[in-house]
Write a structure and sequence with these properties.
single chain; 281 residues; alpha/beta; 2-enoyl-CoA Hydratase, Chain A, domain 1; seven-stranded mixed sheet; four-stranded mixed sheet; globular; binds ligand LGD76KDA; acetylation; isomerase; fatty acid metabolism
C-alpha cells in the first residue's frame, strides 16, 4: 500500500514537470519543463518497424523539438521488448516505384536530421535494436541499454548490401576493423557484447534509469554554448554525412536499383517467410 502510494507520488511529480509538446499516434513527445529535454517515444506497434509514415513522423517530431529550442532529445520506445526492428520490410517487397522512392528519401532525411541534430541526442535502448533500429541508436551521441536484448546490423546475413550511410553510422562510433568484421559477419551483439566494443556507453536495469542517464548526459552540456556545440558537432560528423548531404540522388538511385533486383527480392521473400514461421511454431 505504502509502496504504491509512493509510486503514485513519484508519478505525479514527474507529470508535473513534464508537458506534452506534440504527439502523433506513431510518436509521443514529452518535454521536461525544468530541463527542456524532450523524450521522443517511438510508438508503432508491434515492433516499431519503420514504414514511410513512421519515418515521416520521426523526422517531423525531431524537427519540431529542435525548433522549440529544447535542450536535447532522448529517443526511446513504448514497447518494453523492442526499441526498433529497423525498416519495415514490407516497404521493400515488390514495391510500388513511387512509394519506394519516397520511402527511401524519407529514410535519408530522417537519418540526416537525427545524425546532424543541433541538440544533444541520447538513446535509451529499452529493447532489441536491429538494423535501422541500431542505426538510429548509433546516430545518437550517447547510448544506454537494458540487459538481455540485442543490437546490431545483420543485413549481409539475409542478402542485403549495407548502404554507405549505414556503414558510416557504425564508423562514427566504432573502429574500422570492428565495423568491418561486424558488418561482414552480420553480427548481432548482446547488451554485454555491445558494451565491450563500445557500441553502447552504459548498461542499466530499468527504462527509468536509462532515461535518467540520458538526461544526465544531455545535462553535461549545460555549460557549453549551444551554437558552438552544434557547429563543432556538425564539423565532426559532416564527413560521414557528406554523400547524403551532397549527392543524395546517387545513393537513392543505387539503393532503388539494388532493392529491385531479383536477388534482393528473393532473399527478402525467404527472410519474411522465416519471420512468419517463427511465430507459427
Ligand atoms: C555499392 C552501393 C550499393 C548500395 C546498395 C544499397 C542497398 C540498399 C538496400 C538494402 C537495405 C538494407 C537495409 C536494411 C535495414 C533494415 O532495417 S532491414 C530490417 C531488418 N530487421 C529485422 O530483420 C528485424 C526482424 N524482426 C525480428 O527479429 C523480431 O521481430 C524482433 C526481435 C524485433 C521482435 O521479436 P518479437 O517481439 O518476438 O516480435 P515478432 O513476433 O517477431 O514480430 C511481430 C510482427 O512484426 C513483424 N515484423 C518484425 N520485424 C519486422 C520488420 N522489420 N519489417 C516488417 N515486419 C516485421 C513480424 O513478422 C511479426 O508479424 P506477424 O505478427 O507474424 O504478422
Amino acid at each position: 500500500m505504502l509502496r504504491s502510494r509512493t509510486k503514485l507520488i513519484e508519478l505525479g511529480k514527474r507529470q508535473l514537470c513534464r508537458s506534452m509538446c506534440k504527439s502523433s499516434e506513431l510518436t509521443l513527445v514529452e518535454v521536461d519543463d525544468k530541463t527542456g529535454i524532450a523524450t521522443l517515444t517511438m510508438n508503432k506497434p508491434p515492433v516499431n518497424s519503420c514504414n514511410l509514415e513512421f519515418l515521416r513522423a520521426l523526422k517531423s517530431a525531431m524537427k519540431e523539438i529542435e525548433s522549440n529550442k529544447c535542450s536535447g532529445i532522448i529517443l526511446t520506445s513504448s514497447n518494453d521488448k523492442v526499441f526498433s526492428s529497423g525498416l519495415d520490410l514490407n516497404e521493400l517487397r515488390q514495391p510500388n516505384p513511387e512509394r519506394l522512392a519516397t520511402f527511401w528519401k524519407e529514410l535519408q532525411e530522417m537519418w540526416v536530421t537525427l545524425y546532424l541534430s543541433n541538440v544533444p541526442t541520447a538513446a535509451a535502448i529499452n529493447g532489441h535494436a536491429l538494423a535501422v533500429g541500431c542505426v538510429m541508436a548509433a546516430a545518437c551521441e550517447y547510448r544506454v541499454m537494458l540487459p538481455d536484448f540485442t543490437i546490431g546490423i545483420h543485413a549481409t546475413k539475409f542478402g542485403y548490401v549495407v548502404p554507405p550511410f549505414i556503414v558510416n553510422t557504425y564508423l562514427s562510433v566504432l573502429p574500422h576493423p570492428v565495423v568491418e568484421r561486424a558488418l561482414l559477419q552480420g553480427k548481432i551483439f548482446s547488451t554485454q557484447e555491445a558494451l565491450q566494443i563500445n557500441l553502447i556507453d552504459e548498461v542499466v536495469n530499468s527504462k527509468d534509469e536509462a532515461l535518467c542517464k540520458c538526461a544526465d548526459f544531455i545535462g553535461s552540456f549545460e555549460q557549453t554554448n549551444p551554437v558552438a556545440r552544434a557547429l563543432t558537432k556538425r564539423q565532426l560528423r559532416a564527413p560521414f554525412a557528406k554523400q547524403l548531404l551532397e549527392d543524395p540522388e546517387t545513393e537513392l538511385r543505387e539503393s532503388l536499383e539494388y532493392i529491385n533486383t531479383p536477388l534482393f527480392q528473393e532473399s527478402l521473400d525467404q527472410y519474411l517467410l522465416q519471420l512468419k514461421k517463427k511465430n507459427k511454431k
